[in-house]
Design brief:
With 240 residues, this protein is α/β, with parallel strands linked by helices. It has one domain (55-223): Aldolase class I (TIM Barrel, Alpha-Beta Barrel). The chain has helices at residues 5-18, 36-43, 69-75, 85-91, 95-107, 120-124, 128-140, 169-187, 189-194, 208-212, 229-238; strands at residues 28-29, 49-52, 79-82, 111-116, 151-155, 196-199. Helix 1 packs parallel to helix 2, helix 1 packs parallel to helix 11 (229-238) and helix 7 (128-140) packs across helix 8. It starts with a helix and ends with a helix.
């Protein structure tokens, strides 16, 4: 929850300029809802995609305060995030709700980034895989292999978001490998190998390259570092 529309447009313009030349990396910006139109104008004609931080599963109806997939498409969005840890932690979003939002977004032709991750207490209790596995099974229930081409998974350990703490590359890779294996069980090795799995948990310019070098980490879901164009561009460069 940062930036006014004018500030978001200015930041987006800086990002477009800063990431020019890194054509081998897919880039999307996900500003607050009220900034989407302003950022869409800036991104038009660039290779940077526009995304939303959340989406409702229904096409329309009496859901005050929500935004539908069709509304996002109309303003220029190609991507929507669902199940972000802050949505789960502060707003009570459930695995079932994440699934409904994802299905609605996929049905409208949006790409979806599905977030999963454990709390510090859950990690210390040794149940990370149980929690992450339950979240993934709940979100992907009823989704087929063809639909997975439009799904990205983002592992974001809750204990490493906005805290300055970061999972070590080995810790992050361990969970990413578990996720890849779970996808292989459900959809087969070919589909699992093609799904992008991002890491989101205090990714910064100085740790991005080591994280992205891990075999099952395909990119980043960037939070605080995305508010500085130079830092964000450095992370994009690390993924090239």
């Amino acid at each position: 929850m940062h930036t006014t529309p004018a500030e978001a447009a200015s930041l987006a313009a800086e990002v477009v300029k800063a990431v020019a030349g890194h054509d081998g990396v897919d880039v999307a910006l996900c500003p607050p809802f009220v900034c989407l139109s302003a950022v869409a104008d800036v991104l038009r004609g660039s290779r940077v995609k526009l995304g939303a931080q959340n989406v409702h599963g229904e096409a329309k109806g009496a859901f005050t305060g929500e935004v539908s997939p069709g509304m996002l498409k109309a303003v220029g969005c190609a991507v929507a995030i669902v199940g972000h840890s802050e949505r789960r932690q502060f707003f009570g979003e459930t695995d079932e709700g994440v699934h409904d939002r994802m299905k609605g977004a996929l049905g409208a032709g949006l790409e979806v980034i599905v977030c999963v991750g454990e709390t510090l207490d859950q990690r210390e209790r040794g149940i990370t895989n149980d929690i992450v596995g339950h979240q993934i099974r709940g979100a992907l229930n009823g989704i087929d292999g063809a639909q997975m081409a439009s799904v990205t998974l983002a592992y974001e350990p809750v204990w490493a978001i906005g805290t300055g703490r970061t999972a070590s590359p080995a810790q992050a890779q361990e969970v990413h490998a578990f996720i890849r294996g779970l996808l292989a069980q459900h959809f087969g090795a070919d589909v699992a190998g093609g799904v992008r799995i991002q890491y989101g948990g205090s990714v910064k310019p100085d740790n991005a390259a080591e994280l992205f070098a891990q075999p099952d980490i395909d990119g980043g879901l960037i939070g605080g570092a995305s508010l500085k164009a130079a830092d964000f561009a450095a992370i994009v460069k690390a993924g090239a």
